[in-house]
TrEMBL record:
Transmembrane segments: none annotated. Residues 150-371 form the SUF system FeS cluster assembly SufBD core domain. This is Fe-S cluster assembly protein SufD. InterPro entries: Fe-S_cluster_assembly_SufBD, SUF_FeS_clus_asmbl_SufBD_core, SUF_FeS_clus_asmbl_SufBD_sf, SUF_FeS_clus_asmbl_SufD. Residues 19-29 have a biased composition (Basic and acidic residues). Coiled coil: none annotated.
């Protein structure tokens, strides 16, 4: 029995009569037209509903698809991955079957990698936050192994709850996965995903979130390790007064590919979003990709939205692709905007630090540290921030010379 939930839009009769838009005899021309907007992408939980990835698709054109074949087209291990969860009052952890009603509420796949994971997983790991006092849980995965595998995680914040959930990824891995985040009415949840994989690990992840009435989600990505990391969060602000913040910090070394495609979907009145991703690149072949999509639907009156991406280039031979996109379907908004910038060190900053007796090497470290930690400092939990700052320090010790 298929679980496909494919969404396809039939062309209107009027549309096929327009000049230059008639159906041709060589196939279903109308359905072959490329997707023009972010919200029109087909969705399905069945991998068979997605064609083989060639690398020419808009969603894949920056990715090293030749290295992803096992995860896109191979047989995936859908058994439980090794996971540990720190104990805390107001935090529950359990495994649920793939047909559980709590799966699929936040979103479903929009690309072949996510659909492959959805088709293959056997059980989902459910983490529930129920405490009305701030509580923190660490969900750790280490050494998933070199065999291709699929995973599925659901994080749910009960109405009026307060929580911070940290997803820590280390060791070797070849994994494609889906992470669902459900934020109940009035809840405030922060989800932090830290990628400190081994140098040759491959991690493909789609994160989906739905945010309740007057609720708030802060989604933070810190990508430091792994040969290929492609993590795409989609936050659906589908209840009035919902607030979404998507923050990211990443550091790409030689030969490393770090990719983040962020989608902020305003689908209710008086919603607010902020997107800030900051990255640093050093070493031959270091490649980062950031694509930011913001959609303000017709019913999302009173929306307040802004997205930005900043990249700091530390050496020759790197590449940073940065593409902000903004779709607005109503004129009745508070404000919306986007920005993107990629550049080298500010010579004035380096000169100032060197004039204070700091070596050029240490000055460069200080600039990069301040650049990235501006994002990490917004987590709001001291122990978590210290842990991530230490990870950045370790990365700088190896990478900035």
């Amino acid at each position: 029995m298929t679980e496909a939930v494919a969404e396809k839009t039939a062309p209107s009769a009027q549309g096929t009569e327009q000049h230059g838009a008639r159906a041709h005899s060589d196939g279903d021309w109308a359905n072959r037209a490329p997707v023009q907007t972010r919200s029109e992408r087909p969705k399905s939980t069945d991998v068979a509903d997605f064609p083989t990835v060639t690398g020419r698709e808009a969603v894949w054109k920056f990715s090293p698809v030749a290295k992803l074949d096992a995860l896109l087209n191979g047989v995936l291990d859908g058994s439980r991955p090794p996971v540990s969860v720190s104990e805390a009052a107001g935090i529950a952890s359990e495994w649920i079957s793939r047909d559980d009603a709590r799966i699929g509420r936040a979103g479903i796949p929009e690309d072949r990698a996510a659909a492959a994971a959805w088709s293959a997983f056997g059980e989902a790991h459910l983490v529930t936050v129920s405490s009305e006092e701030q509580v923190t849980a660490v969900v750790a995965r280490d050494a998933l192994g070199a065999s291709p595998r699929a995973a599925h995680t659901v994080i749910e914040a009960a109405p009026q709850s307060r929580g911070l959930v940290i997803l820590e990824n280390t060791g070797d891995a070849r994994v494609t996965e889906n992470v669902e985040i459900v934020v109940g009415d009035g809840a405030k949840l922060t989800v932090v995903s830290v990628q400190q994989w081994a140098d040759d690990a491959i991690h493909l992840a789609a994160h989906y979130a739905t945010v309740g009435r007057d609720a708030s989600l802060t989604h933070i990505v810190v990508s430091l390790g792994g040969g290929i990391v492609r993590l795409n969060p989609a936050i659906h602000l589908d209840h009035e007064g919902a607030n979404g913040e998507a923050l990211g910090a990443y550091f790409a070394d030689a030969g490393q590919h770090l990719e983040h495609q962020v989608y902020m979907d305003h689908d209710a009145p008086h919603t607010r979003s902020r997107v800030t991703y900051k990255g640093a690149l050093q070493g031959e072949g270091a490649h980062t990709v950031w694509i930011g999509d913001v959609l303000i639907r017709q019913n999302a009156t009173g929306t307040d939205s802004y997205e930005q991406n900043r990249n700091l280039v530390l050496s020759e031979g790197t590449r940073a692709d940065s593409i902000p996109n903004l779709e607005i379907e109503t004129g009745d908004i508070e404000g919306a905007g986007h920005a993107s910038a990629t550049g080298r060190f500010d010579d004035e900053h380096i000169f100032y630090l060197r004039s204070r007796g700091i070596s050029e090497e240490e000055a460069r470290k200080l600039v990069v540290r301040g650049f990235l930690l501006e994002v990490i400092a917004q987590i709001g939990d001291e122990s978590t921030e210290e842990r991530l700052q230490a990870a950045v320090e370790a990365e700088l010790a190896e990478s900035v010379r």
